[in-house]
Amino acid sequence: MEISLMNQDNLNPKNLNGKSPNRKSSLLKEIDFYLVTDSELSKKGTLSDVKEAVEAGCKIVQYREKNRSTREMISEAAETKRICSDKAIFLVNDRIDVALAVGADGVHIGQDDMPIGTARKLLGENKIIGLTVHNIDEAIEAEKRGADYVGLSPIFDTATKKDAGDGIGPEKIQEIKNAIRIPIVAIGGINNENCESVVQNGADSLVAISAVICSEDVKSEIKSFIDIIRRTKLKKQA
Asked: How many domains is the chain built from?
C-alpha cells in the first residue's frame, strides 16, 4: 500500500525536536512570551538574543530574517534550533525551505505567503503552523484551514512593521478569543506598560520586538514580560 508523505509523518513516533507528535497542542499551551528575532534592530545579534531569551524561560522563538542569503539563513537557523533544543519551540518566519532544511518545529506565515494547505503538505501534520491575522474573519478562516495558532496584529500602532496598519486595540482580542479555539499570539506596539491589558483581554502569548531586542539586557526584559504575563493569567483564573 502506498503511504503519503503526510501519513509517513504521522507514523513518525518523534517529531518537534524529538518530542511526541501528540504534544503539539500542549506545547503551545505552555507559551507566554514569544520571541521574534530581528537582526536590524538587535544590539547584540540574533543568536545572542535567542540564547538570552531561552535562558530567561522563553518557550517559543521565531527566526525572522529578511536580508541574508539562503545559505546564511540556514546556518543561523540551524544554530538557533540548537540553542532552543528541547527548551523552546523553534519556528521559521515565511521560509518553509529553511524550516525543512534545519528541521524546525514549524513555521509562521502571513496572509500573502504560501497557503496553509500547501504548507501543511510540505511540512506534515505534526509541525506547527502559525498564521498572521488582522480581524475575526481571518482568524476563523485560519482555524478552519488548520493553523495551530494565530498571530493577531497589530494590537497597537507600531513602527516595527511599516505596513501593519492601525492598531485594533486590546479589546478586539476577546472578541476573537470567543470565536476560535486555537491560541492567540498578540503582536504590534506591545510594551511593559500595555502588555497586561493584552493578556487580560485573552491573549495566550505576546510579541514585543522593539521593547526587548533594542534593550541592552534582553534576558532581563524577557523575564519582566514573562512575570507580568504569568501574574496576569493567574489573576484572571482567580
From this structure: 1
Question: What's the CATH number where 61 sits?
Answer: 3.20.20.70
13 in any annotated domain: no
Collapsing DSSP to helix, strand or coil, 94 comes out as coil
Query: What is the tens place of the pLDDT at every residue in 18-59?
Result: 444 456 778 899 999 999 999 999 999 999 999 999 999 999
Cell numbers that stand for 9 in this block = 509523518
If you search the block for the grid coordinates 502588555, which residue do you land on? 195
219 in any annotated domain: yes
Cell numbers for 57, please give them: 524561560
Please, which residues have CB within 8 angstroms of residue 138's CB and are 6 or more apart in sequence? 111, 150
Q: Is 202 among the domain residues? A: yes
- Contact call for residues 91 and 77 (beta carbons, < 8 A): no
Cα separation, 14 vs 47, whole angstroms: 26
pTM: 0.89
Q: For 22, list phi and psi in degrees, rounded to 5.
A: -75, 5
Q: Decide if 196 is inside a domain.
A: yes
- Host domain of residue 201: 25-237
